[in-house]
Amino acid sequence: MQFRNSCGFSATQLLVSGLALSRTALAVPIEDSPRQYLLAGKGLPDKYSSKNNAPGPNGPYSPGYKDPLDKAIDAIGKDLDPLPYRNGLGTSVLGPWNRDRSRQNPDLVRPPSTDHGSLPNLRWSFADSHIRIEEGGWTRETTARELGTSVELASVNMRLDSGVIRELHWHKEAEWAYVLDGEVRVTAIDYEGGNFIGDLKKGDLWYFPSGVPHSLQGLGENGTEFLLIFDDGNFSEDSTFILSDWLVAHTPKSVISKNFDLAPEVFAHLPEKEKYIFQGSKPGSIDEEKPTGKNVKKSKQNFVHRMLEQEPEVTSGGEVRIADSKNFPISKTVAAAHVTIQPGALREMHWHPNADEWSFFIGGRARVTIFGSSGAARTFDYVAGDVGIVPRNMGHFVENIGDEPVEMLEVFRADEFRDFSLFQWMGETPKRLVVDHLFQNDPENGEKFWNRVKSAEKDDVTLPSDEQVKSETQEL
């Protein structure tokens, strides 16, 4: 006698139906992710295979890849997908994965074996900063609120189209600026009441001391884009003292009338709110626009500096230009270096004794390892538009890991640029001490090391010799 359920179906019929439903369920496509393929007992498709992470038979981000030297890998340039494998350790990723972020930060996905401890985050991208959009321009900032380790300096990236004005204003912090592209006109008055007008282009600097009122206007066909640096990490561009905000919102019309000795109706049509960034009229030449009143006087101060017109210090692997109070006298609180690092070259191992380093990457791809003492070290990767922090006295290097030059600014809240070179320090130390410290049980290699460093040559951006590169490649 065959069992039937309340609906009249036999056990055999139910079994056949169940098998059919099972086959249907198995036919449902698996969600396209490594985790779902593995949970379903399926092998990974080729696109998730480590063979796509060439070079090498297993790729640099696969279980079998060995790298005793912790060499840099340009994940973007080689179109690789970084995964957390290192010298036989680690495993695959099953959950959600931000591929683009991982490619920009391969040394966070797979840190060098030398990284250790818990240094705080020292990297930020302007791409993650909020943009304030105004008439003909925009602005975004990176301060201690965005990057908690940026305690000494804050930064603003600003764009002004042709003729667009950053309104007359001042602030308690000093302002240092680098023109990233285009042309800009700056105006200011100094502490003695002298006026200054200057036109700047790509690679030029300006500096306004605390409280100095000034304005900015885009020139030429495309206006300008620039980087502003303020000597306080908690600065905010939104907290500046703005001319229209003071007069319109916070001063009675009767007081304005008395101050300028004009009838109140003259001020009947002042702007309704602060202007901040707005489209202005096309400016004439400096000679056409300079003030000519009876008591007008020209400033004796020079608020600008042509940084890229400086003769660079040419090194084996790039170029360095330094602007501080020695060659830009008015810049008392900010010093900076413009550094170019050629492919394969290294901004040598060094540290800064007088200030945190605030870095801005203009071009190229780089990795930086920061040694924080107490057994702590951490590696970060940087691309154009990124900001990096190196706290004072922490050892570090900047390595070009891409196929194009790295162009960067090193900025400091200091009147002079100072650094200590590890290479130079070794050569300036007695040979016996150096060998005892590093090669006490290896005199042969100690001699090789000493012969290399004894010149005490300071090479800010160093390019390895062909012999060194060949030796490193053979070892791998």
Automatic annotation (TrEMBL):
Residues 1-27 form the signal peptide. The active site is at E410. SMART domains: Cupin_1 (SM00835). GO terms for biological process: oxalate metabolic process. Keywords: Manganese, Metal-binding, Signal. Residues 41-64, 94-116 are annotated as: Disordered. Binds 2 manganese ions per subunit. Residues 125-268, 305-446 form the Cupin type-1 domain. GO terms for molecular function: metal ion binding. Its cofactor is Mn(2+). InterPro entries: Bicupin_oxalate_deCO2ase/Oxase, Cupin_1, GPI/OXD, RmlC-like_jellyroll, RmlC_Cupin_sf. Mn(2+) 2 binds at H350, H352, E357, H396. Mn(2+) 1 binds at H169, H171, E175, H214. PANTHER family: OXALATE-BINDING PROTEIN (PTHR35848), SLL1358 PROTEIN (PTHR35848:SF9). This is Cupin type-1 domain-containing protein.
